[in-house]
Every structure is written in C-alpha cells, then in structure tokens.
Amino acid sequence: MLPNQNFKLFKGEQIFGSLKGDIISTYLSHSGESKDWYEFILRLNTTKKEMQKFAREMNNKVPEYEILQRDDKAHIVFSRKHNTTGYALFERTNLIEQKGLLKSVDKPCLIILQDQSGVLSLSVSNPDKGIEKTADNPLGWSLATDITIFINGGEYRLANTTQKHVSVNSKDKTTTIIVTVKDGLPLNTTLIKKL
C-alpha cells in the first residue's frame, strides 16, 4: 500500500440471519470528492523490487494490462500477460465496440474469459445473490439465476459435455452460452472451438 491511502481491514465475526462465521475483509475507502476515474491493482506475494519493475513496465507503450472500458455500464480489463479479459457488467449489455470475444449478456454479471488457441476458459458469476423474501421464497434464500452470454469469433462446444448448469449452442459464428449461477459463486467451464 502507498502512504496516505484509506485502507480498511476488518477481522472478526459476521452474522447474517442464522449464519455466523469468522471473516477477514479489506477494502479501499473511496472519498466522494473525486469525480475522475482511477485504477489500482492488487498483487499478492510480491516484493518492493517486483512492484518497482511493474511500475516501470506500466509506463511502457505496451503495459501488462489495458483498460478497455470504464463507465457506468461496464469495467473491462484485458491482461496481455494472461491473454484474459475481465468484465464487470453492470447492466444488460450489447458491446457495440468489440471488447474481446464477448458480444453481449442479458443480465449484470462478472465474467473472466481466456482464449488459448481456440480453447476458452470461462468463469461467470452474479454477485447479486437475489436474496429477497417473497411468497415463493419466505425464508429469503439465494435464488439461482440464468445468465445468457453471446460470444463472437467462432462456434464453440463444451469440453465436458456432462457439466451441469451450463448449455451451449453455436450458429453463424456466434456461440450462445446459458449458465445457472447461485450464491454469488462462479461457474467455471471450458469451451473448444469447432473445426
């Protein structure tokens, strides 16, 4: 951490309804004063020397990562080092400007997509647990959510055809993926490009 940053750390017991457990939570407290965009990275198990090297490399013309979009609709970051794109999509999104392979989603979600020579690693989650007490859900349990994802750049199939909670359909160089997620947990799957 750099000096003068408003870094918060909580370690203790958290209670949510009948659930209780020990947690550790950390976050940066943002002041409401700045309206400018900013960015930060979190690197674990690193040294001061490694971070100085990273800072120099980020000032090069081709930094390790690139922010493709940061606005009220989405935050999208591409990692050159890992050939991976991370998406925080805040609403139903149709990406008019190409941001990697992702074309659109039908709900807000978090996606990590890595392309390794026609093999896609996909991780999808919905951090909104959908906890709401209703007549159909009187205890307010987290409800499963289907998220539909459209991928450009070819037709893909599931690597594991018996995987639960994910279905894939490909047509006209577009792949449609439907995942069922719950409890804010990610669903991870691998897709292989059809020949």
Characterize the structure shown.
- The N and C termini lie far apart (47 Å).
- The chain is globular.
- The mean pLDDT is 84.
- It contains 1 helix and 14 strands; from the N terminus they run ββαββββββββββββ.
- It has one helix spanning 48-58; strands at 7-16, 19-28, 65-70, 74-79, 84-89, 93-99, 102-105, 109-116, 119-125, 145-151, 156-158, 166-171, 174-181, 187-193.
- The longest helix is centred in the N-terminal third of the chain and has 11 residues, at 48-58.
- It is mainly beta and 195 residues long.
- A 7-stranded antiparallel sheet has the order 3-4-5-8-9-14-11, with no helix packed on it. Strands 6-7-10-13-12 form a 5-stranded antiparallel sheet, with no helix packed on it. A two-stranded antiparallel sheet has the order 1-2.
Quick structural gist:
This protein has 195 residues and is mainly beta.
Keyphrases for this structure?
195 residues, mainly beta, seven-stranded antiparallel β-sheet, five-stranded antiparallel β-sheet, 1 helix, 14 strands, 6% helix
> What would you call the shape?
globular
Structural class: mainly beta
Query: If you average the pLDDT, what whole number results?
Result: 84
Count of β-strands: 14
Q: What portion of the residues fall into strands of 2 or more residues?
A: over 45%
Main sheet specs: 7 strands, antiparallel
The helicity comes to under 10%
Q: How many whole angstroms does the radius of gyration measure?
A: 20 Å
Strand order in space, largest sheet: 3-4-5-8-9-14-11
Q: What string gives the helices and strands in order?
A: EEHEEEEEEEEEEEE
Gap from first CA to last CA:
47 Å
pLDDT < 50 stretches:
none
- Discrete helix count: 1
